[in-house]
Design goal:
heterodimer; A: mainly alpha; globular; B: 2 strands; 74% helix
Amino acid sequence: MNRYWTQRIGFAVLTIAAIAVVAPILVVIGIILVEGAKAISWQFIFSMPYEGMKEGGIFPAIVGTLLLTIGTAIAAIPVGVAGTVYLSEYARDTMMTRAIRLAIVNLAGIPSIVYGLFGLGIFVLFMHMGTSILAGVLTLAIMTLPVIMSTSEEALRAVPMEFRTVSASLGGTRWQGIRYIVLPQALPGIITGIILGLLRAAGETAPILFTVAAFYLPRLPRSPFDQVMALPYHLYVISTQVPGMPMSVQYGTALVLLILVLSMNIAATVLRSFFRRRRQW
Amino acid sequence: MARRSSQNWALSLYNEILPGLRRRLAGSETAGRPWTEFVIESSIRVLGFSTIGFVLLIFIFLLREGIPILWEVSPGNLFGTRWYPTFNSFGTLPLILGSAYVTIAAIAIALPLGVSTAVFIREAAPDWAREVLKPLIEVLAGIPSVVLGFFGMHVLAPSVRTALNAPTGLTAFTGAVLLAYMSLPTIISVAEDALDSVPKSYRDAALAMGATKWQTIWRVVVPAARSGIAMAVMLGMGRAIGETMAVMMVTGNAARMPLSLGSLFMPVRTMTATVAAEMGEVASGSAHYHALFGIGIILFILTFIINIVAATAIFKKRRKGGLR
């Protein structure tokens, strides 16, 4: 066989593999979009569930997920950004900083269910927070940290060294250089990292299983020590734990969760490419 | 060098975290700087080390809640083949094998697909295809596992059932397919990095020798990137072992020993699914509770080893100038 034919066949196989990877993604999104759209209405999104969740809407689950995501942002952003600034601006290449990098890789690799166990052990039981928003938020925040840190570190490292040296040459302190030069330049990248981290927090079920999620709670939370319903857990519950659940409600819930997560995903992608194009250095 | 710094870790901690304090104590360099800056820089240093603290904290709390199972239940029971917690049977073997079985099956699907896609994106795809593929793969990475599990339950499992004419579509195979797609984004992006770091001179040399583009890719570039591709597979495995919701929803969760190839089309139960399904119903402090934390310890150690090995290899390669 002619080797150019081998090349053609080879490239065809690669193309088929790529299509086999991408096509199912479109199928999943397409099916959930089509089936879920039938359930979506103002009432579905903005009302309380009743009749054992078979009727009414998923408002408390949406609010719960938004609260958890916002809480995670509040807890994770300061630690994540400060940690990243340390790694990229202050740390030298020593044993300790290598240990930090390994710790980040590790946190990123720990299974989400193990975060759930950890949250249950430390926040719910040991610190007596009980099954609460606070416990869930702290668990999700630790899970989110490695995503925020690894993405924002890239952003900080992309800022050219000259920016820092010029700032120093003008008499700025190291912190002034970071605060007024480096951070603003890296901000879009950092925000991308934050969105990617929060997207993971919003979609995860396993870490909130034992730390915050309520099976059925048709009211809004009143304090950080309340339980809440959350979209991913609600989808799990109605698709596996409640017999006779109407399919439209299940698909509708899946669609709302998917839209929430995908819009964050798209925001991150757009933000990144927009600033990459606008960057002048 | 490495030995010295590990011996003096306390000193290096002092040097790393508190140089501001040290200089302040020495009364030099910081003179004239506002104290707010000193506070900010110190807290940044402390927060920089928080990740190490979190890893330790997670391990400590898993041990604290999980270790008691070792003296509550005999070792024979713990590593037995029966997991029936209500009858005090805590044999973790079927769960460990279940996780291993599903993970290996998932990698068997994801490895050829992922590596081919990475090669396609880096070496063969026209620009427009790359522009379409990369964001879509990122979207896949972003789809919550519970949504994929939901899709698996309602669409994939019924098709598996009809295709195999089996009593149920909730099988190890169904789980493996979902897991394969969930580990693909990891495998593809790491494999892409690996291919990317093969020097251009390798390609130029092969092409100059008269090799076709395909021969260059297949005989030169991919072999040169093989250790990076191995890392990609390892990290993908780490992802697959830890995956919980999707697996729990589509594998049928029967705690039986998956020992033959035929088990692929029967229900199976993984470690993660066991913890997720049972932790909600156990009394805290019971043997069952400790056993579930014990499974957590196994999962933590497994992923810890996988990630440390992969990360050190990757760091080392990066320092030498490229992941390969």
